[in-house]
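Observation: inputs received (chain + 1,3-dihydroxyacetonephosphate).
Thought: call the complex predictor directly.
Action: predict_structure
Action Input:
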Amino acid sequence: MLALQKSAVVGKAASRRSVAAKATKFDEELVQTANKIASPGRGILAMDESNATCGKRLDSIGLENTEDNRRAYRELLVTTPGLGQYISGAILFEETLFQSTSTGSTMVAELNKQNIVPGIKVDKGLVPLANSNGESWCMGLDGLDKRCEEYYKAGPSTIAARDCAYGLARYAAIAQNAGLVPIVEPEVLLDGEHDIERCFEVQQAIWAETFKYMADNNVMFEGILLKPAMVTPGADCKTRASPETVAAYTLKMLRRRVPPAVPGIMFLSGGQSELEATLNLNAMNQSPNPWHVSFSYARALQNSVLKAWAGKPENKKAGQDALLKRAAANSAAQLGKYSADGESAEAGQRTYEKGYKY
Ligand code: 13P
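Observation:
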């Protein structure tokens, strides 16, 4: 099984200590699960929106945020016929993990039937980090708040980066010790006017810190998956970047920071349009990479699904067709064989929302 914890940040580097070898009863299973997810032509469907965020999605199509409506939408996603061909894992919100479908099955059973590994968002949400540049940290690890009080003395972005990296490393170690494959996601948001160079610098710093603390915490790199944001210009930057440029910067950053022991890099879409997210992924798979380079999109897989479904039972098939279309497009992009011919204008619409909370 998978687990996801995230944090929103910017950062820099720190000191070293020796790394002890470890083996737990879950080692083999973790490696198997991580590699099953990082399999050719497949990626992750992120459907772990909190109930509040799911409510906003439903609101956009005029539906009330009730458990029944959330169930209907999430059931539509997990029961899409043939989804397992393109999707290897699905990250769920806690409510969904324990939820039954309208036919008396469970969401988890439906995923297993399709050979999709179920995952769970384990964090308790983001809260503002005191004295930072408007950054957030992620709740869900006991004691982290106390350390945070100490870190803040070091100055804004440094604390945020260190705190995020340390928290993610602890989370990864705890998840692995319980047999869950951690998806490590230091979330670098699209918000801002910064250029692609600045995004590159920040992401380098964040991933340096994250891997340093993961090594300190004896996280087994063969049994994790990463969920980075792509290296792109900020949402309000005047200069846009082509898929080739995004791919070149993103891969350069990852090659510098991510050991080949890591089986998979599963990008978030972060507010890009469905089309941009697919084109950028395709550009990154034009030549072989040391890791499986794939997707773990929420908005870039779900945007057109919601519009096609519009909350009407008679549109369920149209919604599922829309999901399958996006999943197939991203599967092709994972293999570096995607062509944008025949994409709708809608797929080119940005999903970006300033100050978006997952
Ligand atoms: P987006 O693809 O919408 O950025 O979401 C990914 C994610 O992190 C959800 O878990």
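Thought: report the result.
Final Answer: Residues 4, 46, 48, 91, 268-270, 297-300, 358 surround 1,3-dihydroxyacetonephosphate (CB under 6 Å). The chain has twelve helices and ten strands.
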